[in-house]
Amino acid sequence: MLEQRTLGALTVSELGLGCMGMSFAYGPGDDDESIRTIHRALELGVTFLDTADIYGAGVNEELVGRAVAGRRDDFVIATKFANRTDADGNRFIDNSPDWIRQAVDDSLRRLGTDYIDLYYMHRRDPDVPIEESVGVMAEQVQAGKVRHLGLSEVSAETLRAATTVHPIAALQSEWSLFTRGLEAEIVPVARELGVGLVPYSPLGRGLLAGALTSTESLAPDDFRRNNPRWQGENLEHNLALVQKMRDLAEQAGCSPVQLALAWLLAQGDDVVPIPGTKRVKYLEENTAAADVNVPADVLAQLDALGEAAGDRYQGAMMQAVER
User: Fold this and answer.
1) Exposure string (b/e) for 13-46, b if CB count within 10 Å is 16 or more?
2) What is the DSSP letter of 271?
3) Fewest CB atoms less than 10 Å from the CB: which of 22, 49, 167, 190?
4) Pick the catalytic residue: 26, 55, 120, 200?
5) CATH 3.40.50.970 is the classification of domain 4-203+264-292
6) What is the mean pLDDT of residues 97-108?
7) pTM (2 decimals)?
8) Dist. CA 112–CA 48, nearest whole Å
9) What percent of the chain has pLDDT over 70?
10) Is 55 a catalytic residue?
11) pLDDT tens-digit profile of 213-229?
12) Pick from 49, 11, 274: which is nearest to 148 by CA?
């Protein structure tokens, strides 16, 4: 059984389960297998589930709601607002008070629950003062609809300003052996403020698993097909890093997946990675990472690997992070 960690005042399992790929971004879903995966997660002690209203235009929240029905209080559910799409399918960020109030009610309905354990602002619109948005989020806590607040992909400055309005339990940002820029400023400020860290894409969107070497086998609608890190020279550079990872995993006696997650877990007791999967077998491999003791010399070599080549997102999506 997994140990527990704290995100601010919120207690969660030391590993969470990212549910996005069950309905969104990574090819076709399988609802039955996804629900089995969530149920198996509970058996393994993974009680921290992560979703968002943008994942499948609400479909992912509905899936999570069906999976936890009848055992809601056994799980800690995190969801997010702010990413929206217009009538033409173009994405935009909405941090307005009216949207926050509507979005939380919509998420509660889709999840089939009367409270959300952790409610994140998914992305920040710099034209809306963070103090205003967090103030409206805090209203949802006072109303009993939300228990804890979080932010995603914000700068250290924004995080600091947000905590003057209401305690922030968690910061969810991309963090892995491939993505380490937040360690310079954002992680220290989060720790100064008592904000827990929830790394998403802890396996480099699957690259760190070592099985994928190109985009050819990906589904036509898999967003990684157009991800800069999966293109040309960037991919060649990143696959060379993956090979070094595979060699170090062999030294540590575990899979590359488990080594990548164990490295993150070793970064501090306030770190709770949320590897995503829609299949039981990968969930079980991920969860076993909590039992991996990485030798100090292997940790040092991992620290020295260097980051992946290429931006994390394309164009406008990259401009929306760390604001």
Assistant:
1) bbbbbbbbbbbbbbeebeeeebbbbbebbbebbb
2) B
3) 167
4) 55
5) no
6) 98
7) 0.94
8) 17
9) 97
10) yes
11) 777 777 777 767 878 88
12) 11
